Every structure is written in C-alpha cells, then in structure tokens.
C-alpha cells in the first residue's frame, strides 16, 4: 500500500523560510515515494478575509508558484485547490455532526489565532468551522501522514478523533487515522529574534528574496553582542539560522564553539556565512520561479483538480455509503468526479 500524504497552507502571501523548514522540505523529499497532495486552503482564507477576493486569488497563484519553484514536481504531486473540491465542503458538514461544538472551541490553535489576530468575539461563524474543514481536507484524501509545522498539531489531533469516531459510529474503516509529521525545525524565529517567522509580523525571509534582501535582513538581526571577543550565546537567533541552513554540521559546531568562547568571531562574519547558505538554498528557486507564469500554473491546476476530484469523490461515496446516505446508483458519481 502506498502511503498517502496531504498537507497544505492557507494562501496569505509568499512562502518564507519558516514554511520551508516546517513542512515544505518534507513535501519535496516525500513526493518521490509517496502519493502527495498539496492543498491550497483558499476557502479558509475567506474566514478572515472575505472582503478581499482579489488578493486571495493572487496569493493562490503565488503559493503554487513558490512550491513549484521550491521543487514540488507537478508530475508527481497533486495540487488541491480547496474551493474546487466539492467533496471537501460536503464532508465538512457531515463531520461537523460528530465533533462537539465545545471541543472545536477548545482547540488551542484556534484559540491562539483568535488571540494573535485580535479577533475578539467578532470572528465569522466560518472561522471556527475551518478547523472542522481541515479535518475534512485530510480525510477526503484518506491521508496517512500530514507534514506540518508544530502549530498545526492540534488540528491533526482533532482529525484523528473525528476519524476514529466516524469509523466507530458508521462502521467500516473508511478513514485511516492520520499521523502528523513535524518539520526538522519546529519553530523558526523571525528576523526580530522574538516571534515565530510570519508575514503578518514583518519578520520573514522569503523564498523569493534576492541575495541582497537576504543579506540586508540578516545584517539587521539583533543579537545584543558588542564585540567579537565577547562570549556569545550559541543558541541565539543567528545560530538557530546557522543550524537550520548551513548544511555542514561540523562547520556550525566550530562556529558555535568559537562564538561561545568569544574567540574573535564577529556577528558580521557569521551573518555572512548564514546569508550565503540561505542564498544557496533559494537561488535555484528564484531561477525556476520565472518559468511558472499564471497561465502555466493554471494549466497545472486544471489537470490536478481533475485528479484530486477523482480521489475525493470516491472517499465521499464510501463515507455516504457508511452513513446510509447512498441514494445514487453506483457508477453515476455524485457530480464531483467530472
Ligand atoms: N491550517 C493550515 C495553515 O494555515 C492550512 C491547512 C488547511 C492544512 N487544511 C490543511 C494543513 C490540511 C495541513 C492539512 O497553514
């Protein structure tokens, strides 16, 4: 049996290094021997940006382009534009009956978002519903593995609960119980050295940044260290980047060791090495990005939507059959498989 993998992102802008080490590099690695679905959660984007459809559309193209540039192979992986998969919406409604409202509202990731985005009690009805929607995203593709950043683990836990409950209540093994796969760096700090890297905090290094952007952003990184002979903290934000992006571990150990001893190693020298390592990672992406015009991306999405709906419609048929909702003659489909 091949392992199915589903993961994805809400399109909020260009992808940054936090996305890369949190999940994207796992996708790129796993696409070779697994069936990989990469979801663009464009419906979820409407939970907080319903009045901004143009920017959601632009971000949808951008996030696909970023991933193609980063090395997702459209011949292997399948992009899933959430709004194009009717089975996801249908399954969201059905799964919502199996999760207590209070359980959704206790989801720590939702609570964090309400706090950090200062949504107060003004959020849309659809906002907490997205957590149920995320369960449906994963279960629609009967995924076994979900590569995500640490902040998404609570959603995967809820998905496991609802999958178990569905199988138990309606019988059969319609849904595999998915596992999360947390990235190599669970939480990459932003260039402010404090918060997690994110677009909204303005502390991100983007996969589409130029060598010059990268150098400048690192130059501004604040470590509080005064001189190359002052013992430095080898776990500060600069060294978290060094560990995340300089491939030669021996070199990183050597740098960290000298830094900690204050052995005449200035921040500027470490920053230059880190900047070069990050640039080496993203330079080929910059080059590949140019190939993917909007028209080229759209062509890929058309083909992938067809593929994705095939799997999705089959899952929905199985789920509805288990729920005694099978009123459609076999083979006639439910209108979702094209
Ligand atoms: N909530 C995720 C994010 O904002 C995006 C997402 C939606 C997702 N559905 C998913 C991630 C299913 C993994 C699996 O980044």
Low-confidence stretches: none
Instruction: Output the helix-strand order.
Output: EHEHHEHHHHEHEHHHHH
Q: Within the largest sheet, what's the order of strands?
A: 1-2-3
User: What percent of residues are in strands?
Assistant: 5-15%
Please, what is the oligomeric state? Answer: single chain
The largest β sheet comes out as: 3 strands, parallel
| Fraction of residues in H or I helices | 40-55%
Class by alpha and beta content: mainly alpha
Report how far apart the termini are. Answer: 26 Å
Instruction: Give the overall silhouette.
Output: elongated
**Which ligands appear in the coordinates?**
tryptophan
Q: What's the rounded overall pLDDT mean?
A: 95
How many strands?
5
Number of distinct helices: 13
CA-atom Rg in angstroms: 22 Å
Describe the structure.
This protein has helices spanning 17-30, 42-49, 53-70, 86-96, 101-106, 108-116, 126-140, 153-170, 211-219, 237-245, 249-261, 267-289, 294-322; strands at 4-9, 35-40, 78-81, 145-148, 179-182. It has 338 residues and is mainly alpha-helical. Strands 1-2-3 form a three-stranded parallel sheet. Helix 9 (211-219) runs antiparallel to helix 12. The mean pLDDT is 95.
Question: What's a concise summary of this model?
Answer:
About 55% of the residues lie in helices and about 5% in strands. It has 13 helices and 5 strands.
């Amino acid at each position: 049996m091949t392992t199915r993998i589903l993961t994805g992102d809400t399109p909020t802008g260009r992808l940054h290094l936090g996305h890369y080490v949190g999940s994207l590099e796992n996708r790129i690695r796993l696409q070779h021997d697994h069936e990989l679905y990469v979801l663009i959660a464009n419906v979820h984007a409407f939970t907080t940006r319903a009045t901004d459809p143009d920017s959601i559309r632009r971000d949808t193209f951008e996030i696909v382009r970023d991933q193609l540039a980063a090395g997702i192979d459209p011949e292997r992986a399948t992009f899933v534009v959430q709004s194009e998969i009717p089975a996801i919406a249908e399954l969201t409604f059905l799964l919502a009956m199996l999760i207590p409202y209070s359980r959704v509202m206790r989801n720590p990731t939702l609570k964090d978002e309400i706090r950090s985005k200062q949504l107060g009690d003004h959020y849309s009805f659809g906002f907490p519903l997205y957590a149920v929607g995320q369960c449906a995203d994963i279960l629609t593709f009967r995924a076994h593995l979900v590569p995500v950043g640490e902040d998404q683990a609570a959603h995967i836990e809820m998905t496991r609960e609802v999958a178990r409950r569905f199988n138990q209540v309606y019988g059969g093994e319609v849904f595999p119980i998915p596992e999360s796969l947390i990235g190599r760096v669970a939480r990459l700090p932003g260039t402010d050295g404090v918060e997690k890297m994110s677009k909204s905090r303005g502390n991100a290094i983007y996969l589409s940044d130029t060598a010059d952007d990268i150098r400048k952003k690192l130059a501004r990184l604040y470590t509080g260290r005064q001189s190359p002979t002052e013992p430095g903290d080898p776990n500060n934000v600069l060294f978290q980047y060094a560990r995340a992006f300089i491939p030669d571990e021996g070199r990183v150990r050597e740098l960290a060791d000298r830094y900690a001893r204050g052995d005449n190693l200035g921040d500027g020298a470490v920053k230059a090495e880190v900047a070069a390592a990050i640039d080496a990672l993203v330079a080929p992406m910059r080059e590949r990005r140019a190939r993917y015009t909007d028209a080229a991306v759209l062509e890929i999405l058309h083909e992938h939507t067809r593929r994705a709906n095939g799997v999705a419609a089959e899952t929905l048929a199985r789920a509805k059959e288990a729920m005694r909702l099978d009123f459609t003659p076999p083979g006639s489909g439910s209108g979702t498989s094209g």
